[in-house]
Specification:
Strand content: over 45%
Low-confidence stretches: none
Number of domains: 1
CATH topology: Immunoglobulin-like
Largest sheet: 8 strands, mixed
Number of strands: 11
């Protein structure tokens, strides 16, 4: 399963990194899914899938913000699960020189219409999530935080069922 994809470039950023206990911390977690599932996400396979009544790709993502070095069963500070869907459709758009194209429905209930295959891959597989956390939830002192991310998808004409996960490097935060 792991050979179908891997999660790369996992990052976590915090603003501010030096905060007061009554501040609100803004975290940004980013990553990209790469591998066969991303490479096979192109127009010829969209059309083959459409012709076989495979109408789209559903990706389930999870992003967690955790204290680093804390035992495995510890509850994450923040956790978010979300879904992105690519829907393949018959197009009559004169700007698109193909019979079948895709839209990407994001977790924000926005439907995006990519102009190129690469733009569709970026919309589907590049992820940025924002979290807010009161500094008081961490308490005074120095803290090491990290992000854990994962993705799951089902079997389709162009990919087997699979999942991938990754972790960010540790981020140091100081709260006074």
């Amino acid at each position: 399963m792991g050979s179908w994809a891997r999660i790369e470039q996992v990052t976590v950023k915090c603003s501010p990194q030096k905060a007061k206990v009554d501040d609100t911390l803004a975290f940004t977690v980013g990553f990209r899914l790469d591998g066969v599932v991303r490479r096979n996400f192109h127009q010829q396979f969209w059309e083959a899938a459409y012709d076989q009544h495979d109408g789209g790709l559903r990706m389930a993502f999870k992003a967690e913000l955790r204290k680093s070095g804390v035992r495995l069963l510890a509850k994450p500070l923040k956790e978010e699960k979300f879904v992105r869907r690519a829907v393949f459709f018959w197009t009559r758009n004169p700007e698109i020189p193909h019979r079948v194209w895709t839209t990407v429905a994001t977790e924000f209930e926005t439907i995006l219409y990519p102009k190129t295959e690469e733009e569709a891959r970026e919309m589907m597989f590049n992820v940025t999530r924002s979290f807010e956390l009161p500094a008081s939830a961490l308490g005074k002192g120095n803290h090491n935080l990290g992000a854990s991310v994962s993705a799951k998808w089902g079997k389709h004409v162009f990919t087997e069922r699979g999942e991938a996960s990754g972790k960010s490097p540790s981020l140091k935060i100081q709260i006074a």
